[in-house]
Amino acid sequence: MSMHADRPVRQLRLVVEAEDYEAALAFYRDVLGLPEQAAFSGGDGARVAILDAGQATLEIANPAQKKMIDEVEVGRQVAPKIRVAFEVDDARATTERLVSAGADEVAPPTVTPWESLNSRLDAPAGLHITVFQELRPLEERQELDGFATDAER
Questions:
Q1: What SS3 class is residue 6?
Q2: Edge-to-edge strand order for the sheet containing 84-87?
Q3: pTM for this structure?
Q4: Distance of CA 3 to the CA centre of its chain
Q5: Beta pairing, strands 47-51 & 84-87
Q6: For 62-82, what is each residue's pLDDT tens digit?
Q7: Closest Cα to residue 80, out of 119, 126, 112?
Q8: How far is Cα 138 from Cα 141, in angstroms, rounded to an integer?
């Protein structure tokens, strides 16, 4: 019996086309710090690198939630339909590193009502990203208003 028998999906892999492959790879691997898990090249200059981003989740938000998050983190509607969020240990230092490496800061690190420190950036490969640092452990965040699974509601 596989240890994933109760989980039909084993991994979330976000595939991003980068016009400037070298710049995107340097930004996400070397500056953000995602370790390279594998890299492949093929004919006609085809190249791909698979970077380990730790645990993956798929966050499904309705339009009202997306609007509220943009208002809290940025103060205006700015995110496209897809935004990529990276949990880090130090949101301020990571944001400064990423901006120094060419990302555009959309909003500086901001403390959210759900007790995280979040910044927004426009980053290489056309990604709109959030860098977030959890300020309280999961057990404490679960006690906050509105923090429950749909099954618990």
A1: coil
A2: 84-87, 127-134, 116-123, 104-111
A3: 0.86
A4: 27
A5: unpaired
A6: 999 999 999 999 999 999 999
A7: 126
A8: 5
